[in-house]
Amino acid sequence: MCKSIRDVLIAVVLGAGVLAAWPAQAADIENALKQAESVRTRDPQAFANALDGLDRFEPEATPKQKLQIRFLKTYQKVLTGDYRTAITDAIDIHKRTDDPTLKFRAALLAANTAAITREFSLGLRYLEAALAMQDQVPEADERHLGSLVAAVLYTEYGQHSLTLHHAKHLLAIQTTPRTRCVAREKKIEAEWKLGSGANSEQDINFAISDCVAQKEPIATGLLRGYLARLWAAEGKNNEAIGLLEAHLSEVEATGFPRLIGEIHSLLAEYRQATGDLAGAELDARTVLELGERDAFSQPLVTAYKVLFETALKRGDLRVALREYRNYAEADKARLDEIKAREFAFQLSRHELQQKNQAIELLQKQNEVLTLQQEVSEAATRNNQLLLVLLAMVMAAIAYWAYKVKRVQVKFRRQAQVDGLTGISNRRHFRQTGEALLQRCASAGRDASMVLLDLDHFKRINDSHGHAVGDWVLQQVAVALQAACREGDICARLGGEEFALLSCGSDVDAARRIAQRCREHLAAIDTSVIGQPVTASFGCTTSGRSGYAFEAMFAHADVAMYQAKASGRDRVRAYGEDGVGPATVLELVRG
Prior knowledge:
Blueprint: H1 3-13, H2 29-38, H3 44-57, H4 63-79, H5 83-96, H6 100-116, H7 120-132, H8 140-156, H9 160-172, H10 177-194, H11 201-213, H12 217-233, H13 237-246, H14 248-253, H15 257-273, H16 277-289, H17 298-314, H18 317-375, H19 380-416, H20 426-443, E1 447-454, H21 457-464, H22 466-483, E2 489-494, E3 497-503, H23 507-522, E4 535-541, H24 542-545, H25 549-565, E5 571-573, H26 583-589
Parallel strand pairs: 4-5
Antiparallel strand pairs: 1-3, 1-4, 2-3
């Protein structure tokens, strides 16, 4: 880069000049592109200013340079949270360009951004497309970027062992300082999430120093977050707060919503632990303001939890209940998101395997075609050999089609069934329940919902271990199925909470169903734990709550908690026994 451009850019960062003041003879677009690349991850403001300067050069740019400028602008959209537009632009650039390096980088950007927006299959597809053409990229540093993005994406999909593998690989080879910095951050993050205990304060500080030297604020901010976690785990909450506060302005200057939300959620958690409730609430609210862009993140769950616990400590039970429900919903959504990512990863692995098998079959078919040309001049024996080969190919196709179908059925069942008990999971219960309620409403038939929560289940886990607790949950699922009528839907909602939805039953029938469940629970042989298995039941009907799934679920939930509050091991119906909309607040106060 020529000295004049460098001087002007420095002036821009320091506020002493603007890009529009560049002299015409210094408008070297290639140097401007290189300058924008050099500050792309290091200095968000300088990067934004560099893009403004590139706008001036764009009319005289070549088609290839225009695509490079568009790529940089797409990257900025990711930094500012405009993920959807960024994905569309990155895919379009990938399709339009013939330059292998730009095509490679566009595929990686699409893959990385799709993971942020939870379009998991799309992200893995473009990651595989990028890695498939990695050897075509002439620059070694650009090729290493593929391994770096793979490490980042494997973190998103919860495959931390693979992340650690790629990060260690990058640290073991000669690569760019920036790649080394990010690889150190991914290695520390993977080791932390794997619980390997490999991280030490010295390791994290070394990585922070490296990333500071490379002027990589996002990686540096993430690393400081892990140092704060390490201190907090050692009981040094004040030191953790001090570290995060000292560099908060740097984090917010990145404009990266995920990093900003993570740091504020840590501050909220540590401030609450030190008794600074006002500060904790302020940081939690900041996370919520970013929540629309990252609705399934751990920082959002932490923020709701902090708000719930803060309201409890202040004695504001109404707010505490509201925030607890927000916390529970966010946490459930996060867990469902984790399962969806794991499913997408496994499905992608299966699709890749299927693709490789298809390639093998095509190769076999090409071999058969070659044999057909040879046997056209041969005798009957060769023709018979051809028929045998064709039969083998068809058998292989049929075999793999059968295998594919079995795997698809298996994945579909995993997405609908609770892995421990074998009955429907929460998501499948909602889907099938809404359909059943629509049928009941169309037919003019009553419907009822029963929720039950096991009494003192935590004692069983604490006294006898989680293996015994799992056995109890399995027995409860068997008992619940035995109490169902034909056409009823039963499910495990999570933890020790179960549900049942029945069509053609009024409140008396709902009570009878709940009572049958109690009887089946009482019949469980609990000699191994030395105490009976009981549950608190809450029920409602469409006549009292309407046919909306959410309303029925909420009313049955109110009745269930009333059953717990009035002594457990009993049945309560919404609209009876003093159970109504006002009961929720009374339960919280109790």
